[in-house]
Amino acid sequence: MKLHHIGAIVDSIDDACKSYGLLHNKIFEANKIFMASQQVNVCFISIANDTLLELIEKAGENSAISRMQAKGFTFYHLGYKVQDFEKSLAELGEKNFKHLNTFYSEAFENKKCAFLFSPEMHLIEIIEE
Fold it and tell me: What is the pTM of this model?
């Protein structure tokens, strides 16, 4: 498994891109991707050599992040790319990670993804490479 991104819930992707641009002395363009399955917009910005920050804003009242955002959550998940999706999903299950759902993500060219809770109840995402 290779760390790919850190997911963060934001009120505005455009505003967050400006803020992170101040930290990194560069302009981040808000290349938003609408994810119909979760009713969110996402944008990836590079924050380290091989690690991205995924900014996630709700795109509707039935958004997957609405309840979390209402409770003040901003950290969302860690995303990992995996070479063998099914094997990784099974191995994580054996290590007491709870599989929540599997879906095909518009953000990753409709590749297979899954969300899981770690034993510490942290949300992770695995992404088919």
Answer: 0.86
pLDDT of 37-90, one tens digit each?
899 999 999 887 888 999 999 998 889 899 999 999 999 999 999 999 999 999
CB 103 within 8 A of CB 37: yes
Count of domains forming the chain: 1
Q: What is the DSSP string of 97-126?
A: PEEEEEEEEGGGTTEEEEEEE-TTS-EEEE
d(CA 67, CA 85): 28
The domain in which residue 114 lies consists of: 2-128
In the DSSP assignment, the letter for residue 3 is: E
Q: What is the domain-level CATH number for residue 52?
A: 3.10.180.10
Q: What percent of the chain clears pLDDT 90, i.e. is strictly above it? A: 77
- Distance between CA atoms of residues 70 and 118, nearest Å: 23
Phi-psi region for residue 35, left (φ > 0), alpha (ψ -120 to 50) or beta?
beta
